[in-house]
Predict the structure of PKD domain-containing protein.
Amino acid sequence: MRRRCLVLLAAVLATVLAVVFTATPAAATGAQPRVVSDRPASWTPHVLDGTVYAIAVVGTEVVVGGDFTRVATADRSTTLSRHGLFAFRLGTGEISSSFTPTPDGTVRALAAGPDNTVYAGGDFSTVGGAGHRGIAQLAVPSGTPIAAFTSPGVDGGDVTAVAVHGSALYVGGSFTGVDGTARPALAKLSGTSGALDTNFNAGLAQQRSGRLRLEKLAITNDGATLAAAGTFTRAGGADRNQLALLSAASGAARNWYTTAYVPDCHAGYNTYLRGVDFAPDGSYLVVVTTGHQAGDKAMCNSAARFDTGGTGAHDAVWVNRTGGNSLFAVAVTGAAVYVGGHEQWLDNPHGDKSAGPGAVSRPGIGAIDPTTGKALAWNPTRSRGVGVQSMVTYPAGSGYPGGLLVGSDTDQLGHEYHGRIGAFPL
């Protein structure tokens, strides 16, 4: 009898577990169930100079890019030379001794690649002693350039944005083409060989002023849609002012647009869009901007949500204005929209470098409710400097929860010393 009961119990448990695991879908990349802590983790290392412009999570390693030259361990007992790129382990902060590719210029963008690799974009010509004009693929944690990725190189400009899905690599920047083939500001490459995908052509054109440049890229978790932000006013022959949703397969402009970013901000900005990120399920995106102008009508110095469903013209679902200070980075998790920059306040449409009615203090970093568009209570604070340049989520691992990584140009985060990079755990 006891044996039959045990067998029956095992069968019931197996059935329950099967139901649980088949009925619960895998979480989308970047999705988090709640807001992160306002206390930074103690294990992150420190960047001692320059600016952190980009962060990518590759397995249990964090790859950091920028224009720095020195880093230190979390306890600041050891200082190491690291030019433009370094890596450290999630949960411990241990700085990789092997990941020392040493690009000869600034790294502006990073994206995790397949098989424990990372793609780096920037204004460099060599990485790891090998020629790589603007884009390279590196093994993690060895830092060795991947030999098969021949990296044809971009023409006439630099790489400022990268996005990856599967074997597809998207690069954006101020370049005019790839290896002699015209691809203004945006191209799709093979993530394996680096060869140009000639079937993809976004046709970005007619910059607002200055030179044509793509500022930021984001891609949906299903790999179907790209969001491109930059100086363009046309994409694939259609009017798309500074923001376009594109087919990730062909580059064709989707029948989705907004006129929200047609008006000018400060005359010095040929684009004032500085960051874009999709919600984990792809149902909306959030754009953050600079612009020097304040007011309750302009889209300068704001975070704005746009739903991605449907066709034709789209107005912002909500706009959260800082009252005259720039936002440079955004990360959308479903539980929160994290924003970072040079801001002093959120919920401040009537401020002009001042706190208007209803403004809430959020120096340098904050979080917004994805539904209401109002500031959440999360308020760790940071020394503002120029501003946060990168915000990236990371998953839970052995002995540590998931969280949010933040890269900037300052060393005070959550009322503690954190040199230019920090982590807020869930």
In short: Confidence is low (pLDDT under 50) at residues 1-27. The chain has one domain: 28-425.
